[in-house]
Design goal:
The complex is a heterodimer. Chain A is mostly helical. Chain A is built from eight helices and no strands. Helix content of chain A is 69%, strand content 0%. In chain A, helix 6 crosses helix 7. Chain A is elongated and about 70 Å long. The longest helix of chain A has 18 residues. Chain B is mainly α. Chain B has two domains: 105 residues, no CATH class; 81 residues, Arc Repressor Mutant, subunit A (Orthogonal Bundle), CATH 1.10.10.10. In chain B, 70% of the residues lie in helices and 0% in strands. Chain B contains eleven helices and no strands. Chain B is elongated. Chains A and B meet through helix 1, helix 2, helix 3 and helix 8 of A and helix 1, helix 2, helix 3, helix 4 and helix 5 of B.
Chain lengths: 157, 228
């Protein structure tokens, strides 16, 4: 018979996951930090469970916020002047979700709502980045987007 | 001796020391920034898996929470995880993968978000053993290479095979191929057109079911140890 210690620990992992035993899950990952074979096994199990859970993160579609797009603008190589950077900073504070269909008219409406003036270049880039992001918002991008939001919130705190 | 060149003195040594300290301090700051970047990347890469796993854990019947509550708690726990990572940058040993460490912190953070709100404790193999998982300390330490020795009597292998034949199809096929025929999960995945991850999950679930069946008929590890 072919059962090893990793199978036994794997059984603990699955049983802990299914019974909601957070402490055992944490302990197993703690052990895996110093045990590459266990880490490898748990990663396999996690990916197997992820397939079963597929759609859990996408059960409710992620809606983009102005802050998500502002983050992209900050990371882009576009050079903005002081006034334009101030607009990007203001957008970065706006966590309201954007409508599913984004047009220049909607962007101008957002500018008006936030009391922003000018910065046409930022408005165009904003629309372009938002459209590109909406097109490729698959599961992995959703995860990355949510991680970026967690990082932003943590930094604000 | 050239009088313009000052002799080596305590004061001069002090200047050198200050320069060395400044250099060391700058090097440390650069190193910490690099580690922070590594952790942030690892956090982003782990986020989707962690989010799904934590959501699934909270949504099971043990917690029985509304979806919106689960989502809020998971998002808060992951935000807290990132904050803790930032606070522990100096402790991070980057010769090891960050993924398990991030997951450990996330599960503890979620545990604290949950109703029990127990303080975080460090992992100990003995805690798992205390949960009644026979032989786990030896398994964790790697001193038992073949767990079948600890859990099953070799003479009862045929009985166990018969019990395995009664498992639901998905589990039975994986158990027979991996446990009895000795195929690797990758080979089984290839043969059954599954991912290796799915094979590992089915093997573990199949083994758990098998263990319960064997205990029920009096030849499992719990029956042998006399535990309930």
């Amino acid at each position: 018979m072919n059962i090893d210690r990793l199978d036994q620990l794997g059984m603990c992992f699955i049983e802990a996951h299914e019974s909601g035993d957070l402490e055992t899950m944490a302990q197993l990952w703690g052990m895996a930090a110093a045990d590459s074979a266990l880490n490898n096994r748990l990663m396999h199990l996690e990916s197997g469970l992820m397939l079963e859970l597929d759609g859990a993160i996408g059960a409710e579609p992620i809606r983009l916020t102005a802050a998500d797009i502002a983050e992209k603008l900050r990371l882009s190589e576009t050079r903005y002047n002081v006034e334009e950077r101030a607009v990007v900073d203001r957008l970065a504070q706006c966590e309201e979700t954007l409508p599913e269909t984004l047009t220049m008219r909607v962007v101008r409406g957002l500018w008006e709502q936030l009391g922003l003036n000018g910065a046409e270049k930022v408005a165009r880039d904003f629309l372009e980045q938002a459209s590109a992001l909406m097109l490729r918002l698959g599961a992995d991008q959703q995860g990355a987007l949510m991680a970026a939001r967690a990082v932003r919130r943590a930094r604000k705190d | 001796m050239d009088r313009t060149e000052p002799p080596e003195s305590g004061k001069n040594s002090g200047k050198v020391s200050t320069a060395v300290l400044q250099e060391t301090s700058a090097a440390t700051a650069v190193e910490l920034a690099r580690r922070r970047q590594v952790l942030e990347t690892a956090f982003t890469e782990s986020y989707r898996a962690l989010y799904s796993m934590l959501m699934a854990t909270l949504r099971n019947k043990a917690f029985n929470l509304p979806v919106a509550t689960c989502r809020d708690r998971v998002e808060d726990a992951l935000q807290e995880t990132f904050l803790r990572l930032l606070n522990k940058v100096a402790e991070y040993d980057d010769s090891r993968p960050a993924g398990p460490w991030i997951r450990q912190i996330a599960y503890y953070a979620l545990m604290e978000q949950s109703s029990s709100r127990q303080p975080r404790r460090e992992a100990r193999a003995g805690d798992l053993h205390a949960k009644g998982l026979t032989g786990l300390e030896e398994l964790v330490s790697g001193s038992v290479e073949d767990a079948s020795v600890a859990f099953f009597d070799q003479e009862q292998v045929e009985q166990i095979r018969q019990a395995a034949m009664q498992l639901p199809d998905d589990f039975r096929d994986v158990i027979l191929l991996t446990v009895f025929d000795g195929l690797t999960p990758a080979e089984v995945a290839d043969r059954l057109n599954l991912t290796p991850g799915t094979v590992y999950v089915r093997k573990c679930r199949g083994l758990s079911l098998l263990k319960k069946t064997l205990n029920g008929i009096g030849i499992g590890p719990e029956a042998r140890d006399g535990s309930p």
